[in-house]
Write a structure and sequence with these properties.
This protein is α+β, with helices and mostly antiparallel strands. It contains 29 helices and 25 strands. It is 51% helix and 16% strand. A hairpin with a 4-residue loop joins strand 21 and strand 22.
């Protein structure tokens, strides 16, 4: 046997790689000899022991890796990088202020841009998580009579389209009630008020390929009386127990048992479907409607989604319009426009008046926010570039000495690029750490959920790497190429490099233009929100609590009993009921006929109980409020001022007129007129509005509390509730003022974002100004010394330098003011009730900017102005 050919090559190659050249022959010979002796006994054992002995030879006495590479180009490069690092360390210690400003500015700029980029990604990818999202369309309708738009379709339309149009591959309907629903867990008898319960066709989970934790998507909702829970809801209801097969009950007095048949993963934050529980639409029809309700055309309150063949989109749109015209309320005088809207365009498209399930955004706002992110990134990059070029300009003698001692132009350029790249990498690492730490805060402000995994996705880190590379090229290439090409003698004669002043002036002007605009915008947004929060609504919302009763026949007859039980308790003054919560954006709109008025009156309306006017302290300006002691008031109507104005009557003339609600065929007399009040959010103007008594359509009980002890009053309210309605009707409530504040949460978050960006902008602007002033005073150090020798005082020197910077700030203010006024005017148009932009905000902002600049410039200049002039000129 040829032993030499059977010796394993891998362990010996590893030995030759790490072992000193002088020891290789000796060690290798001993190992081969031992291997050959063992091979005759056991070949497998011989190979293992050979590896073991090679690894045992890997010790400090035998290792000689460095001596093998020291003459190679790679080793030379390592040594060169070490030298660059030493120079960088000495330079950073010498110019601590410049280094700190450079890294802090770039870190802040990249962090803000990264956070904004994450948010815009979420918004741009809204509803795109589904594999067939680009083929799914929602049916919308608009009444040309009332001009109100609906994200709804008739119940019978979806199955009709699937059966009669080859272009419609599939479709599903989803229903979500406008208020929370009571759910009771049978095993624990715990009750919950669930605002995110949806009812869908059986193919919902298949059409939208929703990921499941347990259960099968196919046929998930085929059986009646079944329900599927989100992962979080299953955990809330059952803890660690298996939810499959468990029972929950829907309803309060009349409860309907539903079997849990599946668990789906929580919907991501950037999708319209924010459900915690989903049951079958067939089950909903059995519980809440009639058996044939799903096949009716006359009702339109479900959302309908169609899977459409892309080449037939226009055909489907025409077919939907034809079906609406033919089958939906053909005898009505109203006409309806039907459209289909791509699922992926819903969030950033025009919002429907009724039927939207999530807040909308628009592309203009996203573009503006993206521009702010780019601007703040540019501010950080401006500061970084200014500081890098300033440092490079002040190191001319160092570079000159290195060139005299033999450094090539390439080495000097590489050194400068290495330093810039190091600063950028450090800033990038710090930015990633800051972005990760700020993800929870970003989630609160933008109503999205963010995970750290999003930071390693290509759509985030590729732009991140590109930005860093561009900064390195822009900030490092100019000083590297400019300084390295200048002759050694010229560099030795100069202490600094002149030039670039105009560019720096432009950059500082841009910084303060942006800072001024952001501060003004923040002020305007804050004042508008304060206006919304403080504007009189026409009623007092601070002491009202609302309790849903779900139009329950077991509850409504007991409302008077509930009221009587409360009457003796001083902490609760009044109780009433209505079809809607005050300030909801969902109201019924109905055609009313009025005696002597020929025009069609499409007005919004509530059905209420008699005590509604006094409970909400609405102001009667003509006639009277409802009176439970007057039998005819069961058919009485009360209108608001806007309704009276719409029919060109005075409030007094309207009293006693006969009025009819066409949809409910209810006729009565107008007994009162109330002063206009805001029954919807301040995004909407007050519209004509009607109230009348109808006990069959009551969904909320409202109570007015005394303001001395809310907690005690709520506890007493709950005790009486449980006593009157029993344990089968769970007690839930919400404060009306909190609901009112929540309506402006989006604007409040926008103000916080503006505030944060304004603060960062001010910080970056101040850092940039400080660095620029520091660079200017150091460059003018000898000039300042000469001026003092010639008799100038320190204050005169400070005034001279301040004057130059004031010119820059005046230009920045002149540019920022008209641009900001235009943008904020456009933003305010979204509000039906808005402030006029106060001029003092603009003046105060400019004064603040000037004050910050003067303090920054003066403090920085004082050191040079107060120094001994001899120190400045002795080297001339």
């Amino acid at each position: 046997m040829n032993y030499q050919e059977n010796i394993p090559k891998s362990p010996l190659r590893f030995l030759r790689w790490f072992c000193k050249s002088a020891l290789i022959d000796e060690i290798e010979g001993d190992l081969i000899e031992a291997y050959q002796d063992r091979l005759e006994q056991n070949s497998r054992s011989a190979k293992l022991k050979l590896w073991k002995e090679v690894l045992q030879s890997f010790n400090l006495r035998n290792i000689g890796i460095m001596e093998k590479y020291q003459n190679r180009a790679g080793f030379g490069r390592v040594s060169m990088l070490k030298q660059y690092a030493r120079v960088l360390y000495r330079m950073a210690r010498k110019h601590k202020v410049y280094t700190a400003i450079s890294i802090a500015s770039l870190t802040l700029g990249i962090t803000c841009a990264g956070l904004i980029h994450l948010y815009i990604q979420k918004e741009a990818n809204f509803d795109r998580i589904y594999s067939q999202a680009d083929k799914i369309y929602r049916i919308n309708h608009k009444s040309t009579t009332s001009e109100r738009s609906y994200a709804y379709a008739p119940l019978a339309m979806t199955p009709y389209l699937i059966q009669n149009s080859e272009a419609v591959v599939d479709g599903t309907r989803i229903f979500k009630y406008r208020r929370a629903s009571p759910i009771t867990v049978v095993a624990s008898q715990r009750s919950f008020n669930e605002p995110r319960l949806g009812w869908a066709d059986e193919n919902f989970f298949e059409l939208f390929d929703i990921p499941l934790v347990s259960g099968q998507a196919e046929g998930m909702l085929d059986r009646p009386n079944t329900i599927v829970l989100s992962e979080t809801t299953a955990q809330k209801y059952f803890g660690e127990d298996d939810p499959i097969g468990q029972m929950v009950e829907f309803g309060s007095a009349e409860k309907h048992k539903l079997e849990v048949v599946g668990v789906f993963k929580d919907f991501p934050s950037n999708t319209s479907f924010q459900f915690d529980l989903i049951s079958g639409l067939e089950t909903c029809s059995r519980i809440m409607w009639s058996s044939n309700h799903l096949n009716e055309w006359r009702n339109m309150f479900v959302s309908a989604y169609l899977l459409v063949k892309p080449e037939f989109v226009q055909d489907v749109a025409s077919f939907v319009q034809e079906a609406t015209t033919t089958y939906f309320d053909p005898e009505s005088t109203s006409t309806w426009e039907s459209t289909i809207q791509p699922l992926t365009d819903i969030h950033l498209g025009a919002a429907m008046d009724i039927g939207e399930w999530s807040s909308h955004n628009d592309k203009e706002k996203l573009a503006l926010l993206g521009a702010i992110g780019i601007i703040i990134l540019c501010l950080g990059c401006f500061n970084f570039t200014n500081m890098i070029t300033a440092q490079a300009g002040q190191r001319t003698k160092e570079v000159g000495v290195r060139k005299v001692l033999g450094s090539h132009r390439r080495n000097i350029a590489q050194q400068t690029l290495f330093e810039t790249m190091t600063f950028v990498v450090v800033s990038g690492v710090l930015s990633i750490a800051l972005i990760y730490a700020l993800l929870p805060k970003l989630g609160v402000l933008t109503a999205h959920r963010y995970e750290w995994m999003e930071l390693i996705k290509p759509e985030f880190y590729l732009p991140f790497v590109i930005i860093l590379s561009v900064v390195v090229i822009i900030s490092g290439a100019y000083p590297a190429l400019y300084i390295s090409r200048i002759q050694s003698i010229q560099l030795m004669k100069q202490s600094t490099l002149e030039g670039g002043g105009s560019i720096r002036n432009i950059l500082v002007t841009a910084q303060f233009t942006i800072t001024t605009a952001l501060i003004i915008s923040t002020g305007i947004v804050y004042l508008q929100l304060q206006y919304l929060k403080n504007k009189k609504l026409g009623f007092d919302d601070s002491v009202i609590v609302n309790m849903p009763i779900h139009n329950d026949e077991a509850v409504i007859p007991k409302i008077n009993t509930f009221r009587n039980e409360i009457a003796s308790y001083a902490g609760i003054s009044q109780v009433t009921a209505a079809s809607h919560e005050m300030l909801t954006d969902y109201t019924y709109i109905t055609q009313f006929d009025i005696e002597g008025i020929e025009a069609e009156n499409l007005w919004e309306r509530y059905t209420v109980e008699q005590d509604y006017i006094s409970t909400f302290d609405l102001e009667i300006i003509a006639g009277r409020e409802f009176d439970s002691n007057i039998q005819s008031d069961s058919t009485a109507f009360i209108l608001n001022e806007s309704a009276i104005k719409a029919i060109n009557l005075t409030p007094e003339e309207a009293i006693g007129k006969t009025i009819t609600d066409i949809s409910l065929d209810k006729t009565g007399k107008i007994v009162g007129v109330v002063r206009d009040f805001h029954f919807r959010s301040l995004h909407h103007e007050i519209a004509p509005f009607v109230m009348y008594v109808n006990w069959d359509r009551l969904d909320y009980i409202s109570a007015r509390l005394a303001s001395d002890n809310f907690q005690k009053n709520i506890s007493h309210l709950e005790d009486i509730w449980n006593k009157v309605f029993g344990d089968g009707v769970p007690f839930f409530f919400n404060y009306l003022d909190q609901q009112s504040a929540a309506m402006y949460q989006k604007e409040d978050n926008e103000m916080q974002l503006f505030s944060i960006f304004s603060f960062i902008s001010i910080l970056l602007g101040t850092l940039g100004l400080f660095g620029f002033v520091l660079y200017t005073t150091e460059r003018k150090f000898k000039e300042i010394g000469l001026r003092k020798v010639l008799g100038a005082s320190s204050w005169q020197v400070i005034e001279l330098i301040n004057k130059n910077f004031m010119k820059i700030l005046i230009i920045a203010a002149a540019i920022a003011t008209p641009i900001t006024f235009f943008l904020m005017s456009k933003w305010l148009k979204d509000f039906a009730y808005r402030i006029d932009q106060p001029i003092w905000v603009y003046i105060a902002t400019v004064l603040i900017i000037f004050l910050v600049a003067i303090i920054t410039v003066s403090r920085t200049t004082w050191r040079a102005a107060a120094s001994n002039p001899v120190e400045a000129i002795k080297n001339e």
